[in-house]
Amino acid sequence: MELKAKYEQRIEQAEAELRQVKNKILRISTLRVLLFAAGIIGTIYFYQAGTPIICLTIAVTFVPFLALVKYHNRLFFRKDWLETCIRVNSDELSALADNYEPFEDGKEFTNPAHRYSFDLDLFGRHSLFQALNRTCTSFGKEKLAEWLQNHLEIKEEIIQRQEATKELAAYSDFRETFRITGLLYKGATSDREEIKEWTEAPAYFSKKWWSRPLLGIVPGVNIVLAMLGVAGVIPMTWFGLAFGLFVIGSFGLIKPVSNLQRVYDKKLRILSIYAELISLIENREMNAPLLRHLKAEFGMDGKSTTHILKELSRELDKLDLRNNQLLYVLLEGSMFWQLRQVMRIEQWRHKYGKYLLHWLDVLGDIDALCSLATFAGNHPAYTYPTIAGKPFVFLAKDMGHPLMPARQCVTNDADIPSRPFFVIITGANMAGKSTYLRTIGVNYVLACTGCPVCCSSLEIYPAKLVTSLRTSDSLTDNESYFFAELKRLKQIIDRLNKGEELFIILDEILKGTNSMDKQKGSFALVRQLMELKTNGIIATHDLLLGKLIEYFPKEIRNYCFEADITNDELTFSYKLREGIAQNMNACFLMKKMGLIIND
C-alpha cells in the first residue's frame, strides 16, 4: 500500500473508533449519573426498611457505579490514545509533504563551533534533525542529536546500525505504538538529573543503627506478649500496652516518612512513564544483532526491567496503606510498617538504582533508532550506502538533498576515488555550489549514522567529517571573520598532523582577504592538504584554483556549475559539469538590477 494511503487509513480507523469511544463515554456518563441518583434516592426511600434492604440498594447502585468509574477511566485513556494516534499519523502525512513543522527541531543543540553540524544545518528549523526526529523521550532526543554530532567511523558499527534501522522500518505498528505511548506518558528533560540525584542520594533509614533492630524488636515483643497472654502467664493488657506504645512511637516517623513518600511517588511517576516503553521493547521479538544486544541490556538476575520496576511500584503501594487510619494503627502497632516499607524501598534502590540510568540510555537508543527507521520507511526510494573498509572513497550516483522537495531537487554525482584526492568546484553565484556541498555533507552524515541516503547508490569510507562553509565574526571574542576561518583551517591541519582521517568540505577558502593574497594562500593550503594525504571538496569563485590540476593531475579533478545567459535571461541547470566554469553572473545581475550602467 502507498505510504500516504496507509497513514490516511490509520487516521480513518482511529477516527471511526474514536467516535464509538466518545459515544460510549457519553452513555456511561449518563448511566453513572442515573445510578448515583438512584442510590441516593433508594437509600433515603428505604431508610426505614432496615439494614438488609439498604445494603441491597447500595449493592445494585453504588457497586455498579464504582465499576463504571473504572471502565470510564479506561475509555478516557483509550480516547487519549486514539487522538494521539490521529496526531502521529497526521504528522507523518505532513512529513511526506516535506513539512516537518510538527516535530521538534533540536535548536538547543545548535553549536557554531562544531566541526560540521552548524555548516550543514543539522539543527534548528527545517533541519535534518527535525526531518529525522520522531523521538518520544528526552533520552532518545539527546541520543539522536549525539549521533548526528558524532557520526560513526567504524564500518562494522555502521552496518549494525543499518541492520537495526532496516528491521525497525518493517515494524510500523510497533513504531506507531511506541511513539503514541511515549507521547501519552511524556517525560521531561529533567528526568535524567532527577533519577541520577535520587539513585545517588544516601539512604535515610537504612544507615541508622536502630532501624534494623527495631524492625525485629517490635513484632518480636508483640508475638511474645501475645503468646504469654493467651497462655495466661501475663495479663493481655500488657500486650495492649506494648501495642499502644509502638503506635505512639511510630508518630515520630510520620513526618520524615511523608517527605520520603512524596519523593518516591514522584520518582515512580517518572519511572512508570518509561516502564511502559521498556515493556513494549521487552515483549517485541528482535533479530538484528544491535537490537538483540540492546534488548539484552534490560533486566538482571533473571528478571525483566518491567518486572523490577513493578516491584518498586508494589512496595510504594504497600507504603500507601499508612494513609488509612485504621490500617495505620494495626500495621504500626504490630510491625512498624512504614519504617519497614521505607527500608525495603531503600534496599530496592541500593540494588537496582545504579542500573536505572543505563536502562534509560538503552531506551534512548531504541527511541532514536525508531526515528531513523521512520525516516527510512518514509523514503523507500532511498538506498543504504555501501561502507568501504579501506580509505578512501566517496562515490555517489543521482545524489540529492534529502530536505529538498522531490519536484525541485536536481540530482548530481560525486566521485572521490582515492587518497589523497580533491574535487575543485567552480561556478557563478547562485549556480548551486553551496547546495552541492551541503548535499554531500548531509548524505555523508546520514550514511555514517546508519540511515538510507538520497542517492540511487553511494559508497563511502567513514572518515571524520570536517567542514568550513559558514564562518562568522564574533564581537564577544573580539574575533574577525577572517581570523575565525583561519582558526577553523588550523583545526583541520592540526587534526591531520595528529593522524586523524578526515573528509574535508570547504566553501570559498580565505573569503576575508584580497584576491592576490587569497589565491596565494589557497594554493598553499591545498598543497599542504595534499602532502597530508587527505580528501575533500572545495568550492570557489576563484577560477585560478582550477589550475592546481596542473600540479596534481592524478589527485585533483575540476567540476563546475554554469550560469547560462540566453536572450538576456539568466538560467541555471544546477547540473554538475566537468571542467572549470566559463560564465560568471555578478556584473550581469548588477546591470539587470540597475546597479551599474556600463561594464
Automatic annotation (TrEMBL):
Query: Where would you find the membrane-spanning parts of this chain?
Result: 25-45, 51-69, 214-232
Q: Which GO terms describe its cellular component?
A: cytosol
DNA mismatch repair proteins mutS family domain sequence ranges: 420-598
What's any GO biological process attached to this entry?
Answer: mismatch repair
- Source species, domain of life: Bacteria
MF term (GO), any:
ATP binding
Q: Which UniProt keywords apply?
A: ATP-binding, Coiled coil, DNA-binding, Membrane, Nucleotide-binding, Transmembrane, Transmembrane helix
Coiled-coil region(s): 4-31
Against CDD domains, the record matches this protein to:
ABC_MutS-like (cd03283)
Q: Which Gene3D superfamilies match?
A: 1.10.1420.10, P-loop containing nucleotide triphosphate hydrolases
InterPro entries hit by this protein:
DNA_mismatch_repair_MutS_C, DNA_mismatch_repair_MutS_core, DNA_mismatch_repair_MutS_sf, MutS, P-loop_NTPase
Query: What is the name of this protein?
Result: Putative DNA mismatch repair protein, MutS-like
At the highest ranks, the source species' classification is:
Bacteria, Pseudomonadati, Bacteroidota, Bacteroidia, Bacteroidales
